[in-house]
């Protein structure tokens, strides 16, 4: 049973089957983000507001590095977030931008489980004019021949294994 990829238990695992890697995406996204440093487009030690002026959590000097290391205090939103909201980039950026931090930014750390990807993603969009997925594909995945996606094209959905719980 472990070699099948669908709930109906009819499709066998293939060498090109794709799986959701959940929070390990953060490490890959951080590597893609680091290419901005290589390109001199962003500085980890600069105030995050240099690149994202309306980010309330960064108004008192929070650096890009602190923001990306879970120190920004925007580990969650106080108002309910729906799954549909998570697919609405402008809405989420507006909500993250105006969210009061849950602690004084830079003084503590707290895991930004769901919202973290929006932080490097929005910084990449602002300084490089591309999505996190585009940057990952063009600078990391394609040159390495890695079949890794952030924002999977619809044409590839048939390759994804279903999430099947115990």
CATH class: Alpha Beta
Total number of domains: 1
**What are the low-pLDDT stretches, counting only 5+ consecutive residues below 50?**
none
Question: SSE order, as H and E?
Answer: HHHHHH
Determine the structural class based on helices, strands and strand pairing: mainly alpha
Return the average pLDDT rounded to an integer. Answer: 94
> What's the total helix number?
6
Query: Ends: how far apart?
Result: 12 Å
Q: For the report, how would you describe the main beta sheet?
A: none
Second CATH tier, the architecture: 3-Layer(aba) Sandwich
Shape, principal axes of CA atoms: globular
CATH superfamily: DD-peptidase/beta-lactamase superfamily
CATH topology: Beta-lactamase
Helicity range: 25-40%
Percent of sequence in beta strands: under 5%
Radius of gyration: 18 Å
Number of beta-strand segments: 0
Concise overview:
The protein is 34% helix and 0% strand. It is mainly α. It has one domain (22-148): Beta-lactamase.
Give a description of the structure:
There is one protein chain. This protein is mainly alpha-helical. It has one domain: DD-peptidase/beta-lactamase superfamily (Beta-lactamase), CATH 3.40.710. Helix content is 34%, strand content 0%. The chain contains six helices and no strands. The chain has helices at 25-38, 64-68, 83-86, 89-98, 118-128, 132-144. Helix 1 packs across helix 6 (132-144). It is globular, with a radius of gyration of 18 Å.
Secondary-structure blueprint of this entry?
Blueprint: H1 25-38, H2 64-68, H3 83-86, H4 89-98, H5 118-128, H6 132-144
Helix pairs in contact: 1-5, 1-6
């Amino acid at each position: 049973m472990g070699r099948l990829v669908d709930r109906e238990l009819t499709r066998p695992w293939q060498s090109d089957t794709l799986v959701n890697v959940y929070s390990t995406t953060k490490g890959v996204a951080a590597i893609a983000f680091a290419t901005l440093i290589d390109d001199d487009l962003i500085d980890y030690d600069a105030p995050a507001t240099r690149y994202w002026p309306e980010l309330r959590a960064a108004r008192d000097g929070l650096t890009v590095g602190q923001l990306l290391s879970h120190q920004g205090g925007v580990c969650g939103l106080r108002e309910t977030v729906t799954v549909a909201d998570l697919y609405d980039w402008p809405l989420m950026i507006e909500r993250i931008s105006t969210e009061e931090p849950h602690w004084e930014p830079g003084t503590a750390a707290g895991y930004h489980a769901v919202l973290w990807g929006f932080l490097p993603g929005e910084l990449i969009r602002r300084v490089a004019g591309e999505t996190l997925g585009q940057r990952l594909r063009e600078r990391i995945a394609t040159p390495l021949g890695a079949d890794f996606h952030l924002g999977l094209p619809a044409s590839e959905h048939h390759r994804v294994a279903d999430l099947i719980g115990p």
